[in-house]
Design a protein that fits this description.
Pfam families: DNA_photolyase
CATH class of the largest domain: Alpha Beta
CATH topology of the largest domain: Rossmann fold
Radius of gyration: 23 Å
Order of helices and strands: EEHEHEHEHEHHHHHHHHHHHHHHHHH
Shape: globular
Catalytic activity: cyclobutadipyrimidine (in DNA) = 2 pyrimidine residues (in DNA)
Largest sheet: 6 strands, mixed
Protein name: Deoxyribodipyrimidine photo-lyase
Structural class: alpha/beta
Keywords: DNA damage, DNA repair, DNA-binding, FAD, Flavoprotein, Lyase
CATH superfamily of the largest domain: HUPs
EC number: 4.1.99.3
Distance between the termini: 62 Å
Helix content: 40-55%
CATH architecture of the largest domain: 3-Layer(aba) Sandwich
Length: 493
């Protein structure tokens, strides 16, 4: 292979499986990038690595995406957003990079090895996810693909690759912060320009009937409908970050440090989480652009970078090194003990999952936060802490509380099924990345939150009224959409 300096830092790449023969041997067959977590063309280290490897051996490259019928309870809300973003990526890809895109449906452990065999690929590049299902699929792929195929995993999601940021489960932000900051100069760098691969893919490109595919997904997941307030795709993501009218860094950044924990000021938040979750924007791009404006608002930028880099990477660290990241087994020993000691404590109210889902509790603030999530698809971060802690207070014990909060979070949040979501629920219910506090009934030593505390912090009545308005508007739009849909069907019948 050529001795040119690679575009991608070698620390960002893990070899999951090495093909038989010398490791510096040229690739004979194509490179396939199995895109999963990082669904973008710009600023994507996994795609850059795939093209680099293909160019070094003068072989073509393709992108493969596997669509699962059911991924951890995702509905029309999440699948619709993802597929509409991928549709834009598909056309952008043909126009800009002339790389074919193949979309498969079914089990990735079947579809990906079959495709590698058909196109006689020599290298599979995958992006990184700490979630157990994805890691199990990759383990299985290593067993199922031919001995002539290598598999490389690239952390294109974190700025400092998760396996280099730390080699162990970290206790808190305090213990990982220094380790990440020490490596940022090496990893928080500009991206190289990505040009079309030298060698073109000769066989036919995958054709995708996006209209039918999206309609099918929307029908199957209609129980949780799509959202209108966040437009999917890379272009839309950059608009949220840098747009002239409502861009976070261009028009809303200055109040971030003071207002981000106030549920009455949702516009103070970046609004980037759907795009970061689906990989439609790179956290590294967000950090590079934020650094450019640090002189204007140093405090706001520092707080934003702490959330974007340290807290996000801490969540990935937890899910990567703690196999029980979504159950009581994943809590620290002190938390498990205190929660177990208080499981039989008398609860003032106990609600079923259905009652919680329908926001049928005695607490109007909790009901508002649940309704905001169900209808708007996003709950304010401060409210999510209160929401999860109340679920601990109102269910039979911590196991049920964790399962219920994760079920609701993954079903309704546009950014559900994410390390940040699991860690958010585990922080609230199991004290993960937190410390022990004064002991009290039900909670034990887990940090306590209550209605009175929220009232001191922000305008609770104002928030409840705000959610009422949001829910009313969502219901109105839904009703109008049904009317329009019925009219369209009558016209075509």
């Amino acid at each position: 292979m050529s001795s040119a300096i690679p575009s991608v830092h070698p620390g960002r790449v893990r070899v999951l499986k090495q093909a038989l023969g010398p490791s510096d041997q040229k690739l004979v067959g194509p490179v396939v990038y199995w895109m999963f977590r990082d669904q973008r063309l710009r600023d994507n280290w996994a795609l850059i690595h795939a093209v680099d490897q293909a160019n070094k051996s003068n072989v073509p490259v393709a992108i493969a995406f596997n669509l699962f019928d059911q991924f951890k309870g995702a509905k029309a809300r999440q699948f619709g957003f993802m597929l509409r973003g991928l549709q834009k990526l598909y056309f952008d890809l043909q126009e800009r990079l002339s790389i074919p895109f193949f979309l498969f449906q079914g089990e990735a452990v079947d579809t990906i090895p079959n495709f590698l065999r058909e196109c006689e690929a020599s290298l599979l590049v995958t992006d990184f996810s700490p979630l157990r299902e994805v890691r199990q699929w990759k383990d299985e792929l290593c067993k199922r693909v031919s001995e002539s195929v290598s598999i490389h995993e690239v952390d294109a999601h974190n700025i400092v690759p998760v396996w280099l940021a730390s080699d162990k489960l970290e206790y808190s932000a305090r213990t990982i912060r220094g380790k990440i900051n020490k490596q940022l100069p090496e990893y928080l760098i500009d991206f190289p320009k990505l040009d079309p691969p030298k060698k073109e893919w000769v066989s036919s490109s995958g054709s995708v009937d996006w209209g039918d595919l999206i309609a099918d997904v929307l029908r199957k997941g209609a129980e949780v409908p799509e959202l209108e307030w966040c437009e999917p795709g890379e272009q839309a993501a950059m608009e949220v970050l840098m747009g002239d009218k409502k861009g976070f860094l261009t028009t809303r950044l200055k109040n971030y440090s003071s207002d981000r924990n106030n549920p009455m000021k949702p516009k103070a938040l970046s609004g980037l989480s759907p795009y970061l979750h689906f990989g439609q924007i790179s956290a590294q791009r967000c950090a590079l652009e934020a650094r450019k404006v640090r002189k204007l608002y140093p405090q706001a930028v520092d707080v934003f970078l702490e959330e974007l880099i340290v807290r996000r990477e801490l969540a990935d660290n937890f899910c990567f090194y703690q196999p029980h990241y979504d159950s009581l087994q994943g809590a620290w020993e002190w938390a498990r003990k205190t929660l177990t000691d208080h499981t039989s404590d008398k609860r003032e109210h106990v609600y079923t999952r259905k009652q919680l889902e329908k926001a049928q509790t005695v607490d109007p603030l909790w009901n508002a936060s649940q309704l905001e999530m169900v209808h708007y698809g996003k709950m304010h971060g401060f409210m999510r802490m209160y929401w999860a802690k109340k679920i601990l207070e109102w269910t039979s014990g911590p196991e049920e509380a964790i399962a219920t909060s994760i079920y609701l979070n993954d079903k309704y949040q546009i950014d559900g099924r994410d390390p940040n979501g699991y860690v958010g629920c585990m922080w609230s219910i199991c004290g993960v990345h937190d410390q022990g506090w004064r002991e009290r009934p039900v909670f034990g030593k887990i940090r306590y939150m209550n209605f009175a505390g929220c009232k001191r912090k922000f305008d609770v009545d104002g928030y409840i009224a705000y959610v009422k308005r949001v829910v009313g508007e969502c219901k109105k739009r839904k009703a109008q959409a049904l009317i329009d849909d019925t009219k369209a069907k009558l016209l075509h019948s």
